[in-house]
Amino acid sequence: MHPGLQLLLEIGAAQPELLLTGKALTDQGRVVTVMLESGWTSAQLRHVIASRPLPAPVRTSVGAIIAARLRAAQAYPPPTALTGSAHSGDVLDDEPPATAATPERSSTGPAARTVTEALTYRALVECAGCGVPCTAPGEDLCPACLDWPLCATCPGPTPRRAHPHGDGRCTTCATAFTGPTQGSTP
Question: Mean pLDDT over residues 94-115, rounded?
């Protein structure tokens, strides 16, 4: 049994609402195994998967929500690679050493956060419907869960969603595809 499968089954045993089976368990187990091999600890992955409650109501599947959480975590290198120090076992160091003084944080200085602080803080809010790490402005759902129409001008195979009360273009297209101003000469 792969370590990722084992970890997901342990999480499912502790929190039955997060139990995966079948193809979802196999697919996400592979992802977790790769993340473990790349430097993530099992404690960090437990935190990524199980520290936040599931949206209520769940509008997709638990497997899709866990997959979205893992994709969001994979967007960054493993936290141990960022700190440059290895943790013993799978335990996160929640407290700084007693002998070291904690420096004052400055808004202009580098972000000196602990691994726990970095994992706890989420810049992107999860959609309450599907768990994707983004929501529409002023909403707790993403544009797809709100069933916003597809952008009429997005290039490529996956168009973004346009606000239903807008001009049919997503925010990116509305700001990026402005035509030449009238009266200008080449």
Answer: 47
